[in-house]
Structures are given as structure tokens and as C-alpha cells.
Amino acid sequence: MRVIDTLAEMQQQADQWRREGLRIGFVPTMGYFHEGHLALMRHARTLADKTVISIFVNPTQFGPNEDFEAYPRDMDRDLELARGVGVDVVFAPTVDQMYPPGFQTYVQVEEVTRPLCGRSRPGHFRGVATVVAKLFQVVKPHVAVFGQKDYQQLLTIRRMVEDLAMDVQVVGHPIVREADGLAMSSRNTYLSEEDRRDALLLSRSLEEARRLVSKGERNGEVILGAVRRILASGPRVRIDYAELRDAETLEPVQHLEGPTLLALAAHVGRARLIDNTVLEP
Amino acid sequence: MRVIDTLAEMQQQADQWRREGLRIGFVPTMGYFHEGHLALMRHARTLADKTVISIFVNPTQFGPNEDFEAYPRDMDRDLELARGVGVDVVFAPTVDQMYPPGFQTYVQVEEVTRPLCGRSRPGHFRGVATVVAKLFQVVKPHVAVFGQKDYQQLLTIRRMVEDLAMDVQVVGHPIVREADGLAMSSRNTYLSEEDRRDALLLSRSLEEARRLVSKGERNGEVILGAVRRILASGPRVRIDYAELRDAETLEPVQHLEGPTLLALAAHVGRARLIDNTVLEP
């Protein structure tokens, strides 16, 4: 496994593979790996000849009062885990490589970045789209794999790739959960034992919504009412949003007809957690 | 010479050339060719094995009260001229191909797009950066040639390419002028005979500025005063801006020390013309 920390070397490696006719799979990450990351890497390996992952805690997707500094990092452990999965290249650029002095170019995806986390975290998706656009120029992947836990991020990347005709296949991977249902997240490390019990209410409320829909419920208010009641039963849970939206356009949904995203964000202790499911009426 | 009108075919052609180890040169244009365009194409041919030009009047770089509809077009003549220069592919997508329903992704370069034409034409450079970013994803050039008449556009593209690590070499080409000094432009076709006489004052004022600097003048106000006097001598000239700016950052310049852009925009008759020179004190 090769570790590359400059853009030029990464582009050279990608060019060489492409000249040899090899297919490049890519998983961009912010590191501090859990089973969710490793599942994306394993999936990328099945789709490509060479697998590149990036580890880069991207400052432009954090707000001024968010956890950029505190975000957990453990490069040695990450490299060990990536090696174990059979990754070919870990691309780990510095902030200065990615954002040199004078940097002033941003990629903005509009409609799909406005609601949900876009409203709670202004500028977040501009940072995400910009860094992924840049990583794509450097890693030159044929296929890139993103987790569906960050559903709005996945939609944003899909739109960017389609709108700018980036020649990359974007693949979503189902949410990977702990045995008890908690969606895996590097930010779960922020949870105390008591926080963690309450954090389970997110996935539990999604289950309840799926149960209601499977029993024929189509009224959005009824479904969200049940979700909010479950979340409110946890004293450590502070809801940021709980919304139903069209699974492709993210337009609000009152009455379920097609595939509908149920998206949650909540502060639990000092962590801000997100989770979601696509309801199929 | 092949004419391609879909993104997918263009990407396939580019991929094939790249697999064969061929170097792709690219000149993006809005068509209605003059000698300036042809000079860019000839230059691109010297830098690459295969030369692609695009012809696309890009709606997103025109303001609501600008000349998108009126912009001159003559595809048959353009194809003839491109063939004469030895272009390999003319890529001429439709507006629907470039901006399909639901399109919502834009590339924004910040500081260098704020002054000059960025102030007169809000959104213009966002449209330029977006369409060029997309064309680069489709044509996959190794090198792209832009005219220096659109100096701020060239700087914007350079910044975008550097900031997003696009693997494209951006080459500027000197302004091509008519025998009498008028910078070539597709919009010169808007000029009446009387307009055209006054339009000459743009290049003439640039000459005067160069003469002053060569004689040792370094005071920006003195230089701009002379420029404005010359422009004001044309009754059909309405100055949009005449400014001195750092040739790389576009920061305002009062006293000339390094390479300094003297940039002009003026309405002459119903045409809005631009011209510039880099003063080297």
C-alpha cells in the first residue's frame, strides 16, 4: 500500500494506471475509520482494479463553531485498517496542498443543498462539493463510493457529477450500523454511555416510521409525529430536524407517494448525529 | 474533421485519444470566428496531437439584459474555417445537453472575478467558469488556449484550474488586432462605420499608456487621465471602466511597480467592447 501526500504524485499514479487500462475506485474520507468506511473500501475494491482512499479532514466543510479542530484523527490506525482491507493508495494531502494561499474557487450545488443539513450548516455542502471536485481531478477515479448515511451529501455529489459531466460513476452504499442499530459515525466517539443509549432513539424512530409505512400510513404528519415522540423520549436528544423529503429532489413531502427520505439530525450530548431511511410506500 | 454534438461521444473520443497516448489541445469558443479564434486554433495545433474546438454560445454567462439572443452565429462558416485550420473535432453541444432540466451546479471563482467585467456583468464569470469546467470534463484536454483579450476570463480560468487541481495546462494567446489596431471581437459586427472609427480609440489609448510608461510615467492617475481623455474624444464612446490593476491578483494599482493590467470596457454604438494591455514598468 502506497501513501501519497502530494497532488502531483497522486495525478501521476492515476495517469499511469489509466494508461495501463486499469479502473480506479475511490473512497474519499475524513479518516478515523469505522466499519462503515471499511465497507465502502471493500465495495470499491469489487468495482475497480485499483482502490484509492483519501484521508483529509476538510476545513471548508466545517462551520466556524463546529468541530474541525476536535474532529477525531488517528492516521496510524487508519493506515493499518486500510492496508487490512487491501487498499492500493492512501492519498493524505495536507491542508496547504488542498487550499494553498490565494485559493478562491468553490463548487456550489444549489437546490439540493438548501434544506436539512444545508440549513443547519451554512457553507457545509459548498465545502463538500469543492473538495470532492478537487479530489476527483487528482485521483481521476472511474468510480467513487459514498455512504448513504450522508444522504444529502451523496445527492449533492451525484448532482455535481451529472451537472458538470464529470466522468465518474457515483455509487451509494447502505448505512452500516452497530448491532444495536446506531448508525456508524466517527462522531459516535463523542458520546458518553448515557448519550449512547439516547442516540439509539434515532434508528429506533426510523424503524417505527418504516413499520407505519408498511402498515399503510401515508400521512407525513402522522409519521413525523411518531418519530418526534420517540426522539423526545430521550432527555439527552435535542432535535435539529426530522423531515420527509422527496428522495431525489429533496422537495418537502406531506403525503407519501414515491420514495421519500426520512432524514434526522439531532444533538446528543456534545455530538451532532444524523441518520436517515428511504421510505418506499 | 469530425463534428460532435453529444457529451458522451466527445468523452469517448477523448478517452480513445488518451488511451493512444495522444495529447489533446482545446480551444473553447462561442463561434462566429475571426482571425483571433483562428490564431488560437493554430497555436493549439502546435501544442497537441489532436485539436478540439467547442462552439457554444453559453447562456449562463450572459446577463438578462445582454445580447445572448442577438449574439452572432454562423455555424456553416465556422465549420469551414475550422476545417481550413486543421481542427480535428468541433464539439458543438446544444444548450439542453449542457444545461439539462434540474441543472444546479456552478463554479465560482471569487476575488479575481469581482472587479472590472465582474462588476459590470454580475454572474458573467460564474457562467464562464462553470461552462469551462464542464467542457474540460468532457473534452479532457491536456492543454487549453484562451485569448488575452478576455484577460479577466483567462485569469479566472487559471485560478479555477489551479485551485481545483484540474490537470490542464492553460495557455494565453496575445490579442489579435485588425490592421488599424482594433482588437478582434465577434461583437465588432455590431459596429456601424462611424462606431468603428470611435472604437479605434480603445487601442489608441492603450498605446498612449504604453508610451507614457516607456517614458517613465508611474503615476496611475496620470496614465488613466490620458486614457480617459482619448476615449472621451469619441462621441460614440461611453466608458464602462478604465482601470489599472495588478496583472495577477487584479488588486487596484495607484503607482506602477510590477506588471500592471490596463483594462478598458466601453459601449460604442450598441456594442460593448473590451481591450487591455499589460504595462511593464
TrEMBL record, chains A, B:
Pathway: Cofactor biosynthesis; (R)-pantothenate biosynthesis; (R)-pantothenate from (R)-pantoate and beta-alanine: step 1/1. The keyword NADP does not apply. Beta-alanine binds at Q61. GO terms for cellular component: cytosol. It is found in: Cytoplasm. The active site is at H37 (proton donor). InterPro entries: Cyt_trans-like, Pantoate_ligase, Pantoate_ligase_C, Rossmann-like_a/b/a_fold. It comes from the Bacteria. Keywords: ATP-binding, Cytoplasm, Ligase, Nucleotide-binding, Pantothenate biosynthesis. ATP binds at residues 30-37, 147-150, 176, 184-187. The reaction proceeds by a bi uni uni bi ping pong mechanism. Homodimer. Belongs to the pantothenate synthetase family. Catalyzes the condensation of pantoate with beta-alanine in an ATP-dependent reaction via a pantoyl-adenylate intermediate. HAMAP family: PanC. This is Pantothenate synthetase. It comes from Desulfacinum hydrothermale DSM 13146. The gene is panC.
